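Deviations from the work plan: none for this task. Representative record:
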Amino acid sequence: MAALELLGGGFLAAFEIWAFLTIVTGLLVGVVAGALPGISFVNAMAMALPFTYVMEPTQSMLFLGGIYVGGVFGGSISAILINVPGTPASLPATWDGYPMTKRGEAKRALTIAVTASATGGLVSALMLAFLSAPFATFALKFSQPEFFAATLLGLVSVIAIAKDQPIVTMVSLLLGIAVGTVGIDPLYGQARFSFGVPEMESGIRFVVVMIGLFAIGEVVDLLATDRDLRPKKTGGKAIGAKLADILGVKGAIARGTGIGCLIGMIPGAGATPGAVIAYGIEKQVSKRGDEFGTGIDEALAAPEAAKNATTGAAMIPLLTLGIPGSAATAIMLAAMMLHGVNPGPLLFIMDPTMVYTIFAAMIIANVLMIGAGIGVAQMFAFLMRTPPAILAAFIIVLSVVGAYGVRNNIFDVYACLAFGVLGWGMKRVGFPSAPLVLGVILGPLAERYFLTSMANSHQDWTVFFTRPISGTIMAMALIFMLWSLAPAIRRLIRHIRS
Amino acid sequence: MASAPLSDKSGVTPRAGGRTPSGLVQHLPSLVAIGLLAMALILPGMMFESDQRPTAVGLGPAAWPRAMLLGLAFFSALWIARDIWALGGAGRRPTLSMPAEDGEYHFGKALIGLVMIVAYGWLMPIAGFSVATAVFIAIWCLFGGVRKPLVVVPVSLIGTVALLWLFMGLALMPLPRGAGAFDTFSIWLLRATGIY
């Protein structure tokens, strides 16, 4: 009952005119940014960070939450209409959404996609609203070893997600953790890897790394490739979706939502694996599995529901443990920290109004997304007429301002540009950058929890295994690691035998 | 299912029907592993300033970075070993391979783009945010194929003033004003636009 009352209060706060307008603005920014190839919702959130400096902490979270929810769906608009996924998570939408567009069923495909996305996102937001508080109460039992184990689980999950390339993923992750060690250490107060540069003593902020790696490489690729972003003309008259079409895919939406909610909660996962896994499972379950890839309703609905279902679920570890599980939630963490708000179980006690306003905003954003998605899809052709060079120029400027705004320091701009060049190089050689970013984010947390746990237990490392909760999470991390490495080990054994 | 390229989470999307680099070029990414191994072995010795002695209490500030660099060295060595093994047999692929190209990726253009971005960041504290941004937007648009002066000039000038108003006026961010004459110009511009 208390949760319902608090959620009611959250709705009242979220429906205040400025809060509501902030959600709507964020949602529209997210859908547009997601729909434009080259600007993912993560880039849009990173670029929006400096705008949040003038906002109240809650308002900044509503704005970023709106971009997050809208951006995850927005990518499907370009995927369905021009066969170019606006975000990697929208890739499955090209497989069955674009064939529907070619048949003249673009409107129908968009309606199915937006309904599935909104349903997935709504269920996920409700789960966030009702499961977070009990989870946070449980998380109050956590001490330093438990937080270390949870962070370690997040780091290990990264390897599990990219199980095709375990060695390279580990290298990328460790490189990120090494970058995170630059600056004053959390326990002894000594500067490391500063190389005589005073600014290095303050460390390299993960937001700066993230903006550089994600935004700059993407923009340079936009310049170097002559991408035609205009929608292609298709024959036939526009066919819209009927209620029966939506009801026909309710099973696929339910399955996709379930998968998305589960995957979203895993730190290091996110919308992309959620959508791809949901597509794969739907292909197995559906009677029309063999026809997938030719424009099948279920094949479009399941991954769409899954990718938006990860949004609310991904915020559970962020709000209850203070551990961001993805790049998007990491930016939300950065915004909270910039406003002096520390997410974690205590936040539910110290500022429940803020927490429940965020929950309400996520629910509202998912409901409003249907209108925003269809509206943006209508004006998509106009948006696509903006020359990519103009879009790219403004992305760079906003990225640079975003990096500068972290500490109002030009050093952060230099660091961002250095990581931008590095990110472009990594893209060109196929080196994964996502584990590096998560290493920079989770590495300092892991170090702090590890060192304080060791100091509190008189340097006894068994503390991580003898405490029940910590030991359980460590066991889960070990199982995750073995599961992720199993295919690579199997391949190695096969090679040796042959 | 239609054959569709799978992208990684970094947003890298190998293009369908693309041209895959072959031969020794495909093994070029292996050099990354050699560089990372060297870095992981050298960096522990450069962790602290020469006049700074690490604390000897407990694990110390060097323990965590040293462990991570050791791990990095181990996995880089594993990567190198795997690539040597891949070199030794036909049909074996290196750990990391350059993504397939569709023949439309202009490396020269990309490199010039990177230089322009770096130059923009370098120019900002000297020429100030307003001048550096207006010049950058104009040059980038011209280089990106937008050649009409009636588009380039308003986009760069109005865009810069809008950004100035947004960040310095509204968000109160102390963006760089530049040095010398550029500082004077920036102050004049900020007064003219009503921000100061």
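Chain A touches chain B through 93 residues (CB under 8 Å).
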